[in-house]
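PROTEIN DATA CARD
Card holder: Beta-glucosidase
Chain length: 449
Origin: Orenia metallireducens
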Amino acid sequence: MSKLYFPEDFVWGAATASYQIEGAYQKDGKGESIWDKFSHTSGKVLNGDTGDIACDHYHRYKEDVQLMKKLGLNSYRFSTSWPRILPQGTGKVNQKGLDFYKRLVDELLEAGIEPAITLYHWDLPQALQDKGGWGNRDTINYFVEYSQIMFEHFGNLVSRWITHNEPWVVAFLGNSTGEHAPGFKDHKLALQVAHNLLVSHCLAARGFRELGLEGEIGITLNLNSVYPLTDSKEDQQAAELVNDYNNDWFLDPLFKGKYPDKLAQIYREEYGELDIKAGDMEIIQEPTDFLGINYYSRALVKHNSEAGLLQAEYMRTEESGYTAMDWEIYPKGLYDLLMNLYQNHTKLDLYITENGAAFDDQVAADGKVYDQRRKDYLKAHFIKAHQAIEAGVPLKGYYVWSLMDNFEWAFGYDRRFGIIHVNYDTCERTLKESAHWYKEVITNNGVDK
Ligand code: GAL
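Structure generated from the sequence above:
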């Protein structure tokens, strides 16, 4: 079988996030986060699950780094918990929180694994939510304060930084649909949150530059390719609006210094003006080093005048398989997305900072986890990424979501994304077949065609 080889310095990694794996939610001075509060509120998370213990990574990080080493990972993307560092979100630093990440980073470096830190993967200190959270502009400054602390302590050890993970999810699932913490249902607030997140991203990145650090910094967006169900003008318009909502609401400010015209007009008519201060749109265009992309699925849409403000309905198709999240498996969407980014949005280096799939994995009688579908999913997406690189896209690395099964937000422990299985009763880890296969991919720096 012939192989597709990746560029020599291609980065193979895996990703996690603090609230999803760490546990130790009150340990060593950590403050409460909005996800602690949300998951402790009845009815918010499936089966009443919480991140109180999660994968107990806080205590098992050494074992986890050894597993990463066994897999041959080049890099590990994890997030730092803001309320572990600043229990009140601002002011007094919790040294023990810093110490934990120092131990983790040292362990990674010792194992030859490059740490990549995400500063904000959704666990805002509850103390800041009590002051209005991301809807309050002051939170921008608090985020810059927190990011400076992290840069000062880890700037010489960590070479890749991500300010925010998926501001779309933070803004809209947290504040418009209410599925995520803090659980509000206010679309105008969500739009303001999105704006404030972008400003905070750029000010944090500016602070990074001012320290003269050598590493690279960027933001991670959840992006998808959007397709109209038919060629009709109505369906195409619906697809364009969904694309504006899902993708360009963040890409356009970052790379064009403005919000997408048509959707901005719709929102203005419906909700009035947002609080956009003079200079904000210039700040948001502050250049960074790379763009991180989380890609899971595509959106297939058709026009439906009853379907909300965008008049767009999301469709299923019998032609595709679906994951346990009910997300369509559509690898070509990754290729289309990468090409679209490169041709129409940015020439920046790109990293896939998340890609993966949830399936209902079981440990078999022989102790193994035969997750063939996850392997097939990853392989198909690696091949599409390779195709985009061949076409000239500067894709520099790929982080699989996720290193291990973990707390999948509103779905709790019910959805397993890991290439490592976690037994939630014992916290025992088992490499799934996809992990063994991924190790081969990394070793060969290539994938079978
Ligand atoms: C992303 C998120 C991850 C993970 C993944 C799978 O939106 O960044 O934390 O949950 O989706 O749903």
